[in-house]
Amino acid sequence: MEKSKSAPSPNSPRKTENAWGRGLKCGYGYTVHENASLLDRTTFRLPARAATLIDVHEFDAVPGLLAEAAQQNRDVLILGGGSNVLFTRDWPGVVLALRTRGLDIIEQHVADRVDDAALVRAAAGEIWDDFVHWTLAHGLCGLENLALIPGSVGAAPIQNIGAYGVEVGEFVDAVHAYDRSAGANVRLDHAACAFAYRDSLFKREGGRYLITAVDFLLPRERALRLDYDGVREELAAMGAGTPDARAVAHAISRVRTRKLPDPSTTGNAGSFFKNPVVSPGLAAALKREYPRLPLWPLPDGAIKLSAAWLIDACGFKGLRDGDAGVSGQHALVLVNYGGASGAQVWALAQRIQRTVLARFGVALEPEPLVV
Ligand code: EPU
Questions:
Q1: What is the whole-number distance in angstroms between the Cα of residue 330 and the centre of ligand 1?
Q2: Best mutation site among 268, 309, 327, 335 for ligand 1, i.e. most ligand atoms within 8 A of its Cβ?
Q3: Are 311 and 331 in contact (CB under 8 A)?
Q4: What pLDDT does 112 receive?
Q5: Tens digits of per-residue pLDDT, 301-357?
């Protein structure tokens, strides 16, 4: 077993005394902030406040904190990297911000399942992009197409993050979580996670599971996935003759930097809408009327459309309404130019939904959690 930073052992909670319940500002594994700003806690950088914000550094503190919140009859919201949430108002309850850290290779060779792969455990609070680069530095591949996605490791399985032809679910061996319904730690294997396009058991079950750590099965070698539009061209522009996984991560980072607004300078949560899936009949009718509309047939016969194209065609790209807007770089990304409120961003999102529905008969579903 190789250790760098220690990941939590997810199935062995320690009993912890809950000092928060006695009015204290910190206890074993957590720190409490009352009436706290959430502006720096989400990539949208919108001005919302939490009545109580608790930073959790040790996962063992969670059951006690949840029990205390239940006793106080207060709603709990779980926050990871804050890259997939839109606060349209203040949160009157408790926000638990998971900041647990730790990365371990827990099995160097899992040869019975995949030729020369390693099993890696990452704590929920690790930063996704840092984790991707850590795996690459350890000679493991698979996650290279997912470089530079904002957010935390614990959030990645919830919406099954995906980019440039890869979805994270492919590499998730198991998810360790605290099941709030059962009041127990659980291990959910790959099948139980029920991954689908921007979807999983964790998303469907709302706030039931609090993800502690994720196990990834990562090969040391595999065929690189370079077919997504623009990836090969970027590698060629970099002069990467025979690219390896690290070169692919570099190329993807360059493409993302160019195509998507940088959340560290312009508040945003990546794609604001999912690409809609429609019936073949509707897709064919739209294609007849709009020959340039991109279509992706799915294995079950349904057709995925490009939400960005639909929004762009309605003239929203680059539109600005006060400090809320649609990115001029990518029509699928809503942005906060600095002083927008969550309600303004949400009003713009709803306007886009209404316009796309009226013009194309297609309902757009938001990708982030809208509070
Ligand atoms: N397009 C437009 N206008 C635009 C941008 C794109 O018409 O402003 C059209 C073009 O025809 C383009 C097509 O949309 O070919 C697809 O665009 P892109 O390759 O950027 O992919 P996407 O479907 O819009 C998805 C993910 C992104 C991910 C990219 C690359 C979703 C909801 N979004 O976007 O994920 O980075 O593919 O794999 O599936 C995210 O989830 O936050 C995210 C950024």
A1: 8
A2: 309
A3: yes
A4: 64
A5: 999 999 999 999 999 999 999 999 999 999 999 999 999 999 999 999 999 999 999
Which one from 83, 152, 271, 327 is the annotated catalytic residue?
271
What is the rounded CA–CA span in Å between residue 214 and residue 129?
15
Q: Does the pLDDT at position 11 exceed 50?
A: no
Q: Residue 24 above 80 pLDDT?
A: no
CA–CA distance, 198 with 314 (Å, rounded to integer): 24
CB-based burial label for 187 (10 Å; 0-12, 13-18, 19+):
middle
198: annotated active-site residue: yes
Q: What is the CATH number of domain 1-222?
A: 3.30.465.10
- The single-letter code of the amino acid at 334 is L
CA of 7 to the centre of ligand 1 (A): 33
Give kind and range of the element (H or E) at residue 175: strand 172-179
Q: Which residues line the pocket of ligand 1, CB cutoff 6 A?
A: 163-164, 228-229, 259-260, 270-271, 274-275, 294, 306, 308-309, 312, 317, 330-332, 367
Whether 271 sits among the annotated catalytic residues: the reply is yes
- Residue identifier of the C-alpha nearest atom 15 of ligand 1: 294
- Say if residues 183 and 211 touch (Cβ distance below 8 Å): no
Helix (H) / strand (E) element for 294: namely none
- CATH code of the region 267-370: 3.90.78.10
Q: Which residue has the higher pLDDT, 240 or 268?
A: 268
Percent of the chain with pLDDT over 70: 92
pLDDT value of position 7: 53
CA end-to-end span of the chain, whole Å?
41
Q: Tell which one of 271, 298, 304, 305 to mutate to probe ligand 1, the residue whose CB is within 8 A of the most ligand atoms.
A: 271
Q: Which residue from 266, 36, 44 is spatially nearest to 151, judged by alpha carbons?
A: 44
Please, are residues 223 and 214 in contact by the beta-carbon 8 Å criterion? no
Annotated catalytic, 367? yes
Q: What residues does each domain of the chain span?
A: 1-222, 267-370
How far is 97 from 57, CA to CA, in rounded Å? 9
How many other CB atoms are there within 10 angstroms of residue 106's CB atom? Answer: 16
pLDDT tens digits for range 106-122? 988 886 666 789 999 99
- Average of per-residue pLDDT across 188-195: 98
